[in-house]
Design a protein that fits this description.
391 residues, alpha+beta, 5-stranded antiparallel β-sheet, 3-stranded antiparallel β-sheet, 38% helix, globular
Length: 391
């Protein structure tokens, strides 16, 4: 299995030779060189034998009718992940949204429909950084026996948008989609076979097998453990974090600004990021001739995937310090207290070398790793089915 690579343990230093590619600076249109480690989205894009300094980042992908729309799509995902990464999943703060007032009819109808189906949807507040509404939605079947597959209990929908109604609606829609996606991709193969054309699932697995062994081993192992558990066990796993309720935030108190088009959302996202000193870059992967825009947005300084891959820099270090969270310490480095890799200027701002407690991070995530990383669709149930035949 491919070894998990994290920035804290990366062998890369300032003398390491990296591969580079061109990106576009959104503000000026000029070309800016970027390490391919950050621009690539799949390993086939790297030269043979090239070892990236961290697992490749797929956050910030965007598509739309033009590049501006696609950039907005990608930027809002980066803002969403940067904003909620230390506030949900295993670190869920339990801030429920009070949706008793202010919802539009479409959003209210979705929540009412889920309630009628016996599904408790739990919209939650993450943050309002940069003046955006950053929310997510989790939930569960009130009758555990009606859960389509236990893995559906881990469904989560996330959203970040200048318009609070759009953000909440997207989060609820994505929550519903995640229930279906997780059930189809990680539920019993018999269920997937029953709703697909004959031979589809087996052909997919056969085609994917050559690359499946390159997947991260921890993600597969953790998912195998989950899908072999009954719904009641998974609900117990999630009760104190994902389903926690420790406070409320009124929906009507969330920031909002009209942004009817993807281009409007891109403009607002760029303006607010650039006003805070962030450099908005993107890889333009649009096909020749126009007609569609495809980009990967990259904003140095925003941070994602701290709890799964220990990607942490100055921004998330500061967030944890401000919360007085024991994940960050100062003192003597050890096997489990690892130095956060920072610039000399950042070290000076902190007044010393911050240390990230990887052992504590492991304990916090515990059995919840499938909330962070998932193996390829059908991979875990295929391995489980094959294991059963061999027993």
């Amino acid at each position: 299995m491919q070894r998990q690579r994290c920035i804290i343990d990366s062998p890369v230093n300032r003398d390491t030779v990296l591969e580079w590619t061109g990106t576009v600076r959104a503000r000026t249109g000029e070309t800016v060189l970027m390490p391919l480690d950050l621009a690539a989205t799949d390993y086939f894009e790297l030269s043979p034998g090239y070892q990236p300094f961290t697992n490749l980042i797929t956050n910030g992908l965007g598509a739309g009718p033009d590049v501006a729309f696609a950039l907005g799509h990608g930027l809002l995902e980066l803002l969403q992940r940067d904003g909620n990464g230390l506030l949900f999943r295993a670190l869920d703060q339990g801030v429920m949204l009070d949706t008793s007032e202010g919802l539009g009819p479409e959003t209210r109808a979705m929540l009412d429909r889920l309630e009628a189906l016996g599904i408790r949807a739990m919209p939650k507040f993450a943050t309002d950084q940069f003046g955006f509404t950053n929310v997510y939605c989790v939930g569960y079947d009130l009758d555990a026996s009606r859960t389509p597959a236990p893995i559906a209990l881990s469904a989560c929908g996330e959203a970040c948008d200048p318009d609070r109604e759009r953000a909440l609606r997207k989060a609820i829609l994505e929550f519903q989609a995640a229930r279906v996606r997780k059930t189809f991709g990680h539920g019993p193969l018999a269920l997937a076979r029953s709703i697909t054309p004959p031979g589809y699932v087996d052909a997919f697995i056969e085609k994917a097998l050559p690359s499946l062994d390159l997947e991260e081993g921890r993600a597969l192992s953790a998912m195998l453990d989950w899908i072999d558990k009954p719904a009641e066990t998974l609900r117990d796993y999630l009760a104190g974090t994902v389903y926690s309720e420790r406070g409320t935030k009124r929906f009507t108190d969330l920031p909002t600004q009209a942004a009817p088009t993807g281009q409007d959302r891109a403009r607002i996202a760029r303006e607010r990021l650039e006003a805070e000193g962030f450099d908005v870059l993107y890889v333009d992967a649009s096909p020749p001739g126009g007609g569609v825009g495809i980009v990967k947005a990259i904003v140095p300084g925003l941070e994602v995937e701290t709890m799964s891959y220990y990607r942490i820099g100055e921004r998330n270090t500061r967030k944890l310090i401000e919360r007085d969270h024991p994940l960050i310490r100062f003192g003597e480095e050890s096997e489990t207290l690892r130095p956060v890799r920072l610039t000399p200027e950042a070290l000076e701002r902190f007044g010393g070398q911050p240390l990230f407690d990887v052992a504590l991070a492991e304990r916090i995530v515990g059995p919840l790793y499938p909330l962070y990383r998932e193996p390829e669709s059908h991979h875990a149930p295929f391995r489980l089915e094959r294991r059963g035949r061999a027993a």
